[in-house]
TrEMBL record:
Signal peptide: none annotated. InterPro entries: AB_hydrolase (IPR050471), AB_hydrolase_1 (IPR000073), AB_hydrolase_fold (IPR029058). This is Alpha/beta hydrolase. Residues 33-262 form the AB hydrolase-1 domain. Keywords: Hydrolase. Transmembrane segments: none annotated. One of its GO terms (molecular function) is hydrolase activity.
């Protein structure tokens, strides 16, 4: 098994006519940590400064959702259907218990997965995300398109605007994060298609406008993290999750946005490692 995410080979598994692309690293055996990625993201969008420390002691699996990156098929138009795909992928690999590390849209998918298959998930990490029916969740699309335009005008990566504050601390953190995503130079994933991105945005809007879930039924140990100025998925939604998920832990990083865990990777990675310890 590879010891670093940038060197982990891309593999595939066929499930019901869909080919899922995935990468795994770390010591095999026991309960794996499955990573659920964000909007418009493929396998190359995980920060190695978070993946690698977790994989130092745990078996880590990251995958492309259906219709995203190197996975075949069409992107589902609902978060719940994405959760069904995640369940199909995980069980196809032969696992009946997993830990979940999720970010943004991935956190929504993770919540839907736990609601449908509570016995599958042992521990849950929810970062930069919010609950179904959360306040202003349905405005994610507008914010996203606005920041993509701003990034295009300055020839920047949209994530620099969407994930980080545009100030003296946020700008260098953004550049460093984007550079880390380029550390993998071989066997890079396929870019996410525009139609796939648009369908994901529609699914997020539908999630934001749906009835609130009963999170009191969620019994898994849960770690929630975000920056204090998340413009994509408002930081108050992380606090909302914390209030509604009994016994959950909440970490909010100062002077940071949607990508607070990436800006503060040196502080967050040890917290995640400790939380996910067996």
């Amino acid at each position: 098994m590879s010891t670093t995410y940038k060197d982990a080979p891309t593999q595939t598994v066929d499930v019901g006519g869909v080919t899922f692309a995935y990468r795994e690293l770390g010591p095999k055996g026991g309960i794996p940590v499955v990573f659920f990625v964000h909007l418009a993201a493929n396998l190359d969008n995980w920060d190695p400064r978070i993946v690698d420390p977790i994989a130092n002691g745990r078996h880590v699996i990251a995958f492309d959702q259906r219709g995203v990156g190197a996975s075949s098929g069409t992107v589902p138009d609902s978060v719940e259907a994405m959760a069904d795909d995640a369940y199909a992928f995980v069980t196809a690999l032969g696992y009946d218990t997993i830990d979940v590390f999720s970010f943004s849209l991935g956190g929504m998918v993770a919540q839907a997965l736990v609601a449908k298959h509570p016995s599958l998930v042992r521990k849950l990490v929810l970062t930069g995300t919010g609950p179904a029916g959360g306040k202003d969740m349905d405005k994610v699309a507008g914010t996203t398109y606005y920041d993509i335009l701003r990034a295009t005008l300055t020839r920047s990566d949209p994530k620099e605007f969407l994930f980080f504050n545009r100030n003296a601390t946020g700008k260098p953190a953004a550049r460093a994060f984007v550079q880390r995503l380029q550390e993998r130079t071989a066997d890079r994933d396929q870019a996410v298609a525009l139609r796939a991105f648009q369908t994901q945005l529609k699914a997020i809007k539908k999630w934001g406008r749906s009835a609130p879930a009963d999170l009191s039924t969620l019994t898994q140990p849960t770690l929630i993290a975000n920056g204090d100025n998340d413009r994509m998925v408002p930081s108050v939604l992380s606090e909302d999750l914390h209030r509604r998920i009994k016994g959950s832990e909440l970490v909010i990083y100062p002077d940071s946005g949607h990508g607070g865990i990436f800006q503060f990777h040196d502080k967050f990675a040890p917290v995640a490692v400790e939380f996910l310890s067996l």
